[in-house]
User: Which sequence fits this backbone?
């Protein structure tokens, strides 16, 4: 899996349940990829921050 | 609601205060959200917002990040500067992208509901959400947040 695809799956996974094969290949990618791990944390932090607004 | 949106967007350039997005969001909440958003969706074309072309350059030809995302400190949530920068970045999102992102992330609406309310396909909605997240994190990084520790 490439980062381009992983980033899309990370985003999708926040809105819907990914099929198990996508979840597992994403998990494998995250084990070896610091950049995508950071991306995943960033989008989660974005969600938490947006919920705090207002 | 579209009037609220347009007014917020028109005012964004002249308005320096931090409360603009708050006012905008509160306006969305106070108006009959579902009805007004449904009405707005008929009037706002998707145009270029339905593709990922504008964020393609984030990755190189081999599918790797050109500029890897950085770690953001967890305390960002308590950081006023971060939240202010986030509001500023939200204001800059294209109308439909911002609308879908706030419905999902602020109001917690499920994507299936967003599709129904706005008359969008599931693909459109995930593209809009993905783009919003990429654009927002880029925007926040450019405002100097998450600079290398």
Assistant:
């Amino acid at each position: 899996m490439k980062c381009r695809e992983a980033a899309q799956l990370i985003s999708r996974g926040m809105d819907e349940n990914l099929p198990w094969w996508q979840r597992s290949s994403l998990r494998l990618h995250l084990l070896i990829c610091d950049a995508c791990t950071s991306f995943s944390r960033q989008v989660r932090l974005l969600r938490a921050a947006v919920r705090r607004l207002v | 609601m579209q009037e609220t949106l347009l007014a917020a967007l028109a005012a964004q350039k002249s308005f320096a205060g931090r409360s603009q997005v708050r006012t905008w969001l509160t306006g969305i909440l106070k108006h009959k959200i579902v009805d007004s958003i449904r009405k707005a969706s008929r009037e706002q074309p998707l145009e270029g917002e339905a593709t990922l072309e504008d964020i393609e350059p984030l990755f190189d030809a081999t599918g790797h990040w050109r500029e890897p995302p950085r770690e953001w400190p967890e305390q960002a949530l308590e950081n006023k500067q971060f939240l202010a920068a986030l509001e500023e970045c939200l204001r800059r999102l294209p109308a439909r992208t911002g609308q879908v992102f706030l419905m999902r992330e602020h109001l917690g609406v499920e994507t299936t509901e967003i599709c129904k309310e706005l008359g969008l396909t599931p693909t459109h909605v995930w593209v809009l959400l993905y783009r919003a997240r990429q654009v927002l994190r880029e925007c926040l990084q450019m405002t100097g947040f998450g600079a290398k520790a």
